[in-house]
Write a structure and sequence with these properties.
By secondary structure, the protein is α+β, with helices and mostly antiparallel strands. The protein has a single domain, classed as OB fold (Dihydrolipoamide Acetyltransferase, E2P) (Beta Barrel). A five-stranded mixed β-barrel has the order 1-2-3-5-4. β2 and β3 form a beta hairpin. The longest helix is centred in the N-terminal third of the chain and has 17 residues.
Length: 137
């Protein structure tokens, strides 16, 4: 009996950790200017500066995403600053035709997909931005 209660308590604790308090979703138009931090302009015209880990920062620096509608999960560090959840959690996604899409980069020569912009790890050609369904393999 004690073991069952212990397992139930651990399960509840795991759910509480997963739904971290203060977790927010931010949606709006991504605005990118070279040499400046990425900004999202919300529907009510507020401009929020985005921050993230190294991989997220590489995606946020990709000028091809300028003007895209995006959705970011994370939390506010100040009223005008938003820290995106770690990259592996898919904290940043594009919105296309009202649906969330993964931001990926693809080399059609080598058939290699990457999660960050840059050159193909094989042929060194620039990868192509490709938005994909999260469930697509």
């Amino acid at each position: 009996m004690k073991v069952c209660l212990w397992i139930a308590a651990l399960g509840c604790a795991a759910l509480c950790v997963r739904a971290a308090p203060g977790s927010d979703t931010l949606r709006g138009k991504l605005i990118l200017h070279p040499g400046s931090p990425a900004v999202v302009e919300t529907e009510d015209h507020r401009r929020i500066t985005l921050e993230g880990d190294e991989s997220t920062s590489k995606v946020l620096a990709d000028q091809r995403l300028n003007g895209f509608e995006v959705e970011a999960r994370g939390h506010f560090t100040a009223p005008d600053r938003f820290l995106i959840d770690p990259f592996y959690t898919r904290g940043l996604m594009a919105v296309k035709d009202g649906k969330l899409k993964l931001i990926t980069y693809y080399c059609d020569v080598c058939d290699i997909r990457s999660s960050v912009p840059g050159r193909c790890v094989c042929c060194q050609r620039e990868t192509t931005l490709e938005l994909r369904d999260p469930d697509q393999r």
